[in-house]
Amino acid sequence: MTELLNPLNTSPVVWLLTLLSAFLVGMSKSGIKGIGMVTIPLMVFLYGAKASVGILLPILVFGDIMAVYHYHKSGKIKEIIRLFPFAAIGIVVAVVVGNQIDDKQFKSAIAGILLISLFVMFLNEIRGKKESLSDKLVFRSFFGITGGFATMIGNAAGPIFNLYIFSMRLPKNGFIGTGAWFFLFLNIFKVPFHVFSWHTITLSTFHLDVLMIPGIIIGAYSGKYIVKFIPEKAYRYFIFVIIFLSSLMLFFK
């Protein structure tokens, strides 16, 4: 019975914090953007740098499926096709790099990517009008390759790709739907590399991820309700501070 509910034989505290991470992923997919980034350093603390990326990935896929279910009609598939090849290049480069570095270096890489992503989030926050990036090949290739690398190393490409998609000036549902489809395709594309190259997704880790699905669902519906009552600006700056402090801790832990 213990193995059925706790396949990795972790402590109850680690199991509950993993469930909390799943809950936060659900909230981020339901519209509370940014809060999902908090799960990245938390999972690193719980499982180690490289292993945490593989454990978190199926949780993200489950969350993406929920987002696509709600917004599938609003996605712009053409835009996804234009960006995806560059993201795939970034993912393949990250797979090679990830096989050459140890866990400490992997942790530093995740921390660095988080700080870069945080800078992108903050820059996007304080800018005025956003210019369209999707029509320019140089921007499309840069964002695709950089985001692909970031998503493979640390599941941390959300701010990068969200900025790119936001620059398309789509209506709200179009922005959410396009992002939902893109991240679903991207995260599924990463799964074989985790299984066959990095070996960070196993039957036991996937078993744990399946147990986290209720947390994702509850988080998604909670997020849709809670987001109505949170002051947007105060919330976003709170997330900035949490991610910044967590990233710094990864460098020194």
- What percentage of the residues does DSSP assign to strands (E)? under 5%
Report the order of strands and helices. Answer: HHHHHHHHHHHH
Oligomer: single chain
Domain count, please report it.
1
Contiguous runs where pLDDT drops below 50 for at least 5 residues: none
- Mean pLDDT figure: 85
SSE-based structural type: mainly alpha
* Rg, Å, rounded: 17 Å
Shape: globular
Proportion in helices:
over 70%
Got a strand count? Answer: 0
**Distance separating the two termini:** 34 Å
Total helical segments: 12
Largest sheet: none
Please describe the topology of this protein.
Layout: H1 2-5, H2 12-29, H3 39-47, H4 49-71, H5 77-98, H6 103-126, H7 137-154, H8 158-166, H9 172-197, H10 203-211, H11 213-226, H12 232-252
Helix pairs in contact: 2-3, 2-4, 2-11, 3-4, 3-12, 4-9, 4-10, 4-11, 5-7, 5-9, 6-8, 6-12, 7-8
Question: What would you note in describing this structure?
Answer:
It contains twelve helices and no strands. With 253 residues, the chain is mainly alpha-helical. It has one domain. Helix 2 (12-29) packs across helix 11 (213-226), helix 5 crosses helix 7 (137-154) and helix 6 (103-126) packs antiparallel against helix 12. The two termini are 34 Å apart.
